[in-house]
Design a protein that fits this description.
The protein has two domains: 75 residues, ADC-like domains (N-terminal domain of TfIIb, Single Sheet); 179 residues, Dimethylsulfoxide Reductase, domain 2 (3-Layer(aba) Sandwich). The strands form four sheets. Strands 10-9-8-11 form a four-stranded parallel beta sheet. Helix 9 runs antiparallel to helix 12, helix 9 crosses helix 13 and helix 12 packs across helix 13. The N terminus is likely disordered. Helices cover 40% and strands 14% of the residues. It has 14 helices and eleven strands. By secondary structure, the protein is an alpha/beta fold.
């Protein structure tokens, strides 16, 4: 059942041929920086320092002994003849044309330090700004703080997972984080909303979804496109783009008014439930059908499937969640639905 999604499980076994016995190779620990999973890996080198094999570390919760195609592709990046191996400094020639000149690290670092000190002297250290993204950014943030400058920001946050973190924090006081703590391999029902697991190849998640499918978990996918994971779904809701909120409100209506939410859990932990109940009173599946183009019975049936699997049910919160402008509220709605039937996300 999970053959397509499970392709990641075979990558590390086929990607790199081995012409030297492991006993003659030196094994060195490393990790992949191509995405936020940062999967741990082992590099095997021969006596001349040539990389002969690259595999996932079995002890790592993200790699689990396997690497995705991006991870195994790291060898190609390492051997790419165009890979930068030294710093480049932009120079201007006598003819006025600019070019890049290779430099040693001490020369490059001195050049950067002189430029920073020059700005500090002429304009003040507060007149510099740092825009960053990813794990390596921390080093530059520490540099700026040591320099006495707090002007650093991460614009990509608002363009990617920012709405998700804000929505989940506003709903129950905690963000999601990365990788997302969604226990999918032990779930009986997994809901994906515009999430392309199996195509975006986040290593451990692909493995988890593959395992869940093999264990006959119910898959619900909301996506106008028949994606890889949608092809594995029991319920594929081919939604009209931009109408996700209408579907989420209808799901809330079904959970509450069909009395399939976890009343004990809501009474103990939730705040504002009666206001929510009144708010979604008119947001029926029939109402949502006219907006989303999804059959109202499919809306109702998918909501019941989610609730029936509780508490082993999960709504994946997504990663790139900046879509239509209502993104934080959409993520809040997902969080509220998840808590309505005590899912495991």
């Amino acid at each position: 059942a999970g053959s397509v999604l499970g392709s990641v499980q075979k990558v590390s076994e086929k990607a790199i041929s081995q012409d030297t016995p492991d006993s003659e190779l030196t094994r060195t620990p490393t990790y992949c920086e191509v995405c936020f999973w940062k999967c741990a890996a082992w590099v095997y080198k021969d006596k001349d320092g040539n990389i002969k094999k690259l595999i996932g570390n079995k002890e790592d919760q993200h790699a689990r002994g396997k690497l995705c195609p991006r991870g195994t592709g790291g060898l190609g990046m390492y051997e790419d003849e165009d890979r930068l191996k030294k710093p480049l400094i932009r120079r201007t020639g006598a003819d006025g044309k600019q070019f890049y000149e290779e430099a040693e690290w001490d020369v490059a670092l001195d050049f950067i330090a002189s430029k920073m000190n020059g700005i500090k002297k002429d304009y003040g250290k507060e007149n510099m700004a740092l825009f960053v993204h990813g794990a390596p950014a921390k080093h530059f943030e520490y540099l700026f703080k040591a320099f006495g400058n707090e002007n650093h920001a991460e614009p990509a946050y608002a363009q990617c997972a920012g709405p998700r973190e804000a929505g989940f924090f506003a709903t129950f006081g905690s963000g999601v984080g990365s990788p997302e703590p969604a226990d999918m391999q032990n779930s009986k029902c997994i809901v994906f909303i515009g999430n392309h697991i199996g195509e975006n190849m986040h290593n451990s998640f692909v493995q988890e979804v593959s395992t869940a499918i093999d264990n006959e978990a119910k898959i619900i996918v909301v996506d106008p496109r028949l994606s890889t994971v949608a092809s594995k779904a029991q319920h594929w809701l081919a939604i009209k783009p931009g109408t996700d909120m209408a579907l989420l409100l209808a799901w809330m209506h079904v959970l509450i008014y069909d009395n399939i939410y976890d009343k004990e859990y809501i009474d103990k932990y939730a705040y504002g439930f009666e206001e929510l109940k009144a708010h979604v009173a008119n947001y029926t599946p029939e109402w949502a059908a006219g907006i989303t183009t999804i059959n109202p019975e499919l809306i109702r049936k998918s909501a019941h499937t989610m609730a029936a699997a509780s508490p082993a049910s999960v709504i994946h919160p997504g990663r790139h969640t900046t879509w239509y402008g209502d993104d934080t509220q959409r993520e809040r709605a997902m969080a509220m639905i998840c808590r309505s039937y005590k899912c495991i996300n």
